[in-house]
Amino acid sequence: MTNSSSVDAQMNDEGNTSRDLSPREFHDFAMQAVEWMERYLEGNATLPVLPRVAPGDLAAQLPMSAPERGEPFATLMQDFEQLIVPGITHWNHPGFMAYFANTASMPGIVAEMLIAALNNNAMLWKTGPAATELELRVVDWLREAMGLPAGWFGFINDTASISTMLSLAAARESLDLGIRERGMAGRADLPVLRVYTSAHSHSSVDKSAITLGIGQQNVVHIEVDDNFRMRADKLEEAIRIDRAAGLRPLAIVATLGTTSTSSVDPVSDIAAICEREKVWLHVDASYAGPAALIPEHRHHFTGWERADSIVVNPHKWLFVPVDCSTLFVRDPDTLKRAFALVPEYLTTREQSYAVNLMDYGVQLGRRFRSLKLWFVMRAFGLQGLRQRLQYQMDIAAEFAQWIAAAEDWTLMAPAPFSLVCFRYAPPGVNDEDADALNERILADVNAEGSVYLSHTKLNDRYTIRLAIGNLRTELKHVSVTWEQLQRAAQAEASGPR
Ligand code: PLP
């Protein structure tokens, strides 16, 4: 039999890779990683935003099984640089202007390191007192800074998709249909539940309906006006028709900053309908919400204070590393009624007077995400954040002006924030040919490597999107992009098809 001291001696042996790094090793390795990050963040503008790889390239280079013996950090770092980085799409690149561009700012990156070191799991107040209290406070800072009145309960989820799903689950719970207890299947007493949202809302609304058993076909996509905003009259009509058919309106999801064009639904009109119809109003401001930090842009948000729930993603347009989605609910008890479930092993003395964040959603364990929001809000200050957001809106507006002034180019939608939708539309080229032309222009520009733009379809026409949201994007990057677009358009329009 081995005695305990020899067991320990074996575990502490230098070559034993079942132990963690020594403090010295940790320091050296962490410094190497930090130095790499520093070089990367300073120099990544020289890398192609889109990696020049094909599906399967990395997979072909990875061993099929995990190593039996632990490997030194130097080897890991080398493989990181040689195998992984070449396959990275550089979201943290000033030329990333696709989808909704975002940023892991340096304060946020440092916070992520500290979050990992603490490895806090704030499922209960007791398992994360500071993480719980910081989360509630820092999200409330954001609420106040965006001009929302006091009285909301705000907390953090990973993504807007989850925040929206939780909101619709709370809406469902608010109907007191006993769904939490008895489910929905096989119940003749349940009405068909309907969710209304614009034809331009994000697919996460449909996914929520799928997840919650509401059914995708019960998501009613309301027609939009010429500026891609939900038509309140069509919404009223849809609700009227549904009620007459015995269907039960559950919730309306209004979007402030839609994915395709960043259009703004008329939330005041929609709120009035919700109040009259007694239907839950969820506001998806996951991209545009931070613009409300700037008083001059608050008019876009008028009426959102009448919602039952609002989602805003600091990981989209507030320079916080992915993932960080804040959800504000007016009545946290309804959400708690939908989700709180406390098995014996999670009971605590404090549960009657402290917030246990596990009560407000599906997940039990939760990352200490508030630390990165706190670091970012404090390092930039509201003033710094406003200044950067305004700058990004200014350079987007400048780009929109170039498009508007250019002969063969056309703006495809208003640009209220930092997203511009446009297309090359020379006279004499029919719509279908122009679609193909724009697709090729986008592919050419993206292949050059210095920028990455994405696309959508508006009124069935292929549309290029330029979204500014990276902290290091400057006017010069937008200007280079414009030159590339014009060059690609010339080449594609005159070259062989
Ligand atoms: N809502 C809107 C308006 C979006 O644009 C997006 C994504 O871009 C989402 C929701 C989903 O966000 P997430 O990736 O955080 O789930």
Main pleated sheet? 7 strands, mixed
Shape: globular
Which stretches are poorly predicted, pLDDT < 50 over at least 5 residues?
Answer: none
Structure classification = alpha/beta
Order of helices and strands: HHHHEHHEHHEHEHEHEEHEHHEEHEEH
Record field, number of beta strands: 12
Give me the side-by-side strand order of the main sheet: 2-8-7-6-5-3-4
Radius of gyration: 25 Å
Quick recap:
By secondary structure, the protein is of the alpha/beta class. It is 43% helix and 12% strand.
Produce the secondary structure layout.
Blueprint: H1 4-11, H2 23-43, H3 57-61, H4 73-84, E1 96-97, H5 106-118, H6 129-145, E2 153-157, H7 160-174, H8 179-182, E3 193-198, H9 203-211, E4 219-222, H10 232-244, E5 248-255, H11 267-277, E6 280-284, E7 309-312, H12 314-317, E8 325-329, H13 332-339, H14 370-405, E9 409-411, E10 419-424, H15 431-448, E11 452-458, E12 461-467, H16 475-494
Parallel strand pairs: 1-11, 3-4, 3-5, 5-6, 6-7
Antiparallel strand pairs: 2-8, 7-8, 9-10, 10-12, 11-12
Helix pairs in contact: 5-14, 6-14, 7-9, 7-13, 14-16, 15-16
The structure holds pyridoxal-5'-phosphate (PLP).
